[in-house]
Amino acid sequence: MTPPDDFQTHTPGLTPFFAVADGLAALHAPHVEAVVHDLATGCVAHIANPMSQRGPGDPSLLEGFAWDASSRVIGPYEKINWDGRRMKCVSIVLRDGAGDPLGLLCLNTDVSGLDAVRRALDAFLAPAAPQGEVASLFVADWHESVNRLVAAWTAERGLVLDRLDRAQRRALIAELQRRGAFEARRAPAYVARLLGVSRATLYGELAALRAEAGEA
User: Fold this and answer.
1) pTM, to two decimals
2) DSSP letters spanning 72-130
3) What is the pLDDT of residues 121-155, one digit of tens each?
4) Strand 73-80 relative to strand 101-110, pairing
5) CB neighbours of residue 46 within 10 Å
6) Do 35 and 20 contact (CB within 8 A), yes or no?
7) What CA–CA distance (Å, rounded) separates 37 from 62?
8) How many other CB atoms sit within 10 Å of the CB of residue 152?
């Protein structure tokens, strides 16, 4: 992906980890996405085998990320991808020669293909009592919130995101607008990528929805 115009240069010490990310993604392709987050800029510095509709320069959204100075490996934890697929993730703290944190290498593994196998096994094995959902470590990650909203909306209607017609797409945009999904600075561009439309098209739909609301 091409970095946005306002993308800041990444911390030089992170560059050697880009090859590590590329190697891990290549070894486990096509099921693993490897993302290098720059703690200094708060942006994605590098991404290999992108599955999450993000690219270099996009915000990392690490505010509230639960780790301390002694952390080495964080997780595994679960996230939901933009298309509803379940991801098993782990984050590795990247440090400089002095031991100071520079960034995070996040490995996101698509495990949705194993869900059918798990359901079949659950039919024969008594599962443990369900536990409450573990809170995401990325508490400020609006990507995750948008992904969950989109996944829930399409699942409730038996729809597939990349097969929505214009009316269905507009209804989804209206629901996202109602839920405040476009309040984050880069959210409209992110949603446009999810829907496979241009930002101009998305802004046009939002303008039309606002106009209709004004007429009501």
Assistant:
1) 0.67
2) SEEEEEEEE-TTS-EEEEEEEEEE-TTS-EEEEEEEEEE-GGGHHHHHHHHHHS-PPPP
3) 777 775 444 444 444 444 457 888 899 999 999 99
4) unpaired
5) 22
6) no
7) 9
8) 13
